[in-house]
Amino acid sequence: MGRAPCCDKANVKKGPWSPEEDAKLKDFIEKYGTGGNWIALPQKAGLKRCGKSCRLRWLNYLRPNIKHGEFTEEEDRIICSLYATIGSRWSIIASQLQGRTDNDIKNYWNTKLKKKLLGSTPNLNKRNHSQQQLQYQQLHQQQLHFPPLQLPQLSRAFDQFNSLATSTLLQCPSYLRYEAKPSLEDGNMIMFGSEKSCTSSDNMASLESYLYNYGTGGTQNLNIVKEGGGYGMSWGDHQAPLEHNYEEIKQLVNCNYTLCNTPSNSATPTSSCIIQDDPVDGLKPQGKLMYQF
DNA sequence: AAGAACTTCAACCGCTTCGCT
DNA sequence: AAGCGAAGCGGTTGAAGTTCT
């Protein structure tokens, strides 16, 4: 059995909106609001349109303070940052860019920004999503002019772990910028800092939205998972293959990470990462990285 | 000049989530 | 707790515009 249609398809107009229809919808919503019911709205407003279509037209085109046209460098940077972190969750990305709609950002990403970023890296389209996301993270780091985490003494697995640790901080709302400063001289510690406070009232809605989406626990598990003949690392939505055996990984990752906040930041991320045998099945050694707000 | 190829973006579709009963 | 309808969301489509040959 198919899904019940949301409206009477036969008596509903489809396709581009005419200026008259736009005016009707705009006038009606400005006078009466949406009434919390998009399905009933078109009939009340005298429109032969599906409620979903009206909602989309209003949200993406007619509502006040919509910004169209060229995206700024800053907007590009935010989009790249968030895409590298959370993927194609356009509504969350849009919530960080005033006046931009999720549809706009999605179109911009698919038609321009992706090509702009990948101009120097052909064949990315052929890769799967997690590979793409990893590469976007690397591109994003370069774009932010952060020095790449060059840790020549350590192996690729260590670098991958750095990347994942960094991306965890990236999951913070965009106003919680971070800075990664590898500091090998200091006992294999990696220092992170945030440069903005997350407590100002105008940011609280975004913070709440972030906590809603990522949980309030402030603790995430890093799993080293046996995959076929090798090992992989999984972290939230991230997965990365590792080219080392368990003992090598253990040796490489068994070091402490300290996340230090700058004096101006009221958030207090703290972290340590210690790989250890899983007491339950012994096959999934876990590291824990903790941070607190 | 013409039409093929490519690009853009508004709009649609259908699945998931939310909130009410 | 379950069921249902509406809202929200992301992937996809296709018409219109632009560029290329």
From TrEMBL:
Residues 9-62, 63-113 form the Myb-like domain. Keywords: DNA-binding, Nucleus, Repeat, Transcription, Transcription regulation. Its main location: nucleus. Pfam families: Myb_DNA-binding. InterPro entries: Homeodomain-like_sf (IPR009057), Myb_dom (IPR017930), SANT/Myb (IPR001005). One of its GO terms (molecular function) is DNA binding. Gene3D superfamilies: Homeodomain-like (1.10.10.60). It is found in: Nucleus. This is Transcription factor RAX2. The lineage of its organism: Eukaryota, Viridiplantae, Streptophyta, Embryophyta, Tracheophyta.
